[in-house]
Amino acid sequence: MSEKDEIQEREDIEKELIELRIRLAERELFEKQQEWASGRLRLERRKLETILNALPNGVHIISHDYQILFGNQWMEKRFRGARGKRCFAEYANRTSPCPGCPVRSALAKGRSAVAEFRFRSRYYEIIAAPLGEFDNLTAAVVNVLDFTVQRKTEEAILSTQRKYGQLLNELNTGIYVSTVSRNSRFVEVNPATINMFDASSREELLNVETRDLCPDKAHRIRFISKLLRKGFVKDAELPLISLRGRRFWASVTAIKKQGEDNQTYFEGVIEDITQRKNAEELVQCLNERLKTSNRRLRKLTLRDDRTGLYNEIYLEKWLDFELARARRFDYPVSLLQIEPSESEREAFDREKRGIGRILRRHLRGYDVLGSTKTGFLVICPRSDAEKTESLKNRLAGLLGEEPVPGLRTKVVFCSKDDSRARYLLERLRE
């Protein structure tokens, strides 16, 4: 080998060494870059896990073959030891994927899918979305929300609404909601309201304007005006009419409320009070009749049946009244008694009514004539003994011998010391 060839061979070897060194340097650089990238990836993964662990809900990463690849602390706390297991076996105790699995749907359709499931008496909402590659496996990220409190609250509300609806349907009192407008209508009624207005169905009643159910315009306007002004009306009594023309009285209590659509509504309670109203009218009628009967009875108790004149009970009360006035105003009072002899008693009794009419026509306006068991008694206010004697003689002249002869008269003058009618009447009978 010539010297030239040796030089050429040496140069070739040096070039190869240089190329080898360059490749080694590139390899070292690549390995360092890969190590840095791996470290960076681990750091980013730890950051992501920290973020996921801080979330107030669960996050799972599940592979296409339903293997749990990752679960944050929220999931680990509730489903400890689930990582690496099949989700359907761990959560649903199944041997195959669950029907309607959101992971399968998300991976198949390439978009988010939502489902609900119950685990250990709690309710969860699952939102699955395609993630791509994770640990060299096609996977989906699963967001798990615990909405047990919300679901139980909703169930409690629904249960209360069902009980409330059942109560409203069983009530004998009508419940309604109506609009507020010129053509106001019911928007909600319970069965009692439907029956009250003799409607064949709920729809039939809802299609009727409320003003047609209260034909009395004055009552209707007064009720609506008060309700709009005050915001409520309690126990308003209205004359109503059913869809079949039956008239009845109702007690209505209502309030004004603003709906979610900012429209004003009336919510109220209707009670049929026709029986009570009829009873009240009957009681009022009976009270009027009782008052009339009492007036008649009072009149009968103060008057004599045979003559129609005041009886002894009234005469005694009136005499007490006259004696009190006489003492106060200092004027005299006298009594004039007219009665028949024993022989003429029978004829007197037959003609007593006629004699009473004669006496009543010729007495003074302020004299009080009454009938007693034995005859007549005249109370003569502002009359001393002389005036009373004159009245006695005048009446005797009028009666004369007709219709009954032999009438006897007796005068008693009341002094200032006489304070009780009873004593004067006793003196008169002596």
Find the CATH superfamily of the largest domain: Reverse transcriptase/Diguanylate cyclase domain
Question: How would you spell out the order of helices and strands?
Answer: HEEHHHEEEHEEHHHEEEHHEHEEHEH
Number of strands: 14
Mean pLDDT: 82
| Principal-axes shape call | rod-shaped
Rg measurement, Å? 57 Å
Q: Into which percent range does the helicity of residues fall?
A: 40-55%
| Helical run tally | 13
Main sheet makeup: 5 strands, antiparallel
Alpha-beta classification: alpha+beta
Strand order of the largest sheet: 2-1-5-4-3
* End-to-end C-alpha gap: 198 Å
Fill in the CATH topology of the largest domain: Alpha-Beta Plaits
Low-confidence stretches: none
Instruction: Please give the domain count.
Output: 3
CATH class of the largest domain: Alpha Beta
Strand content: 15-25%
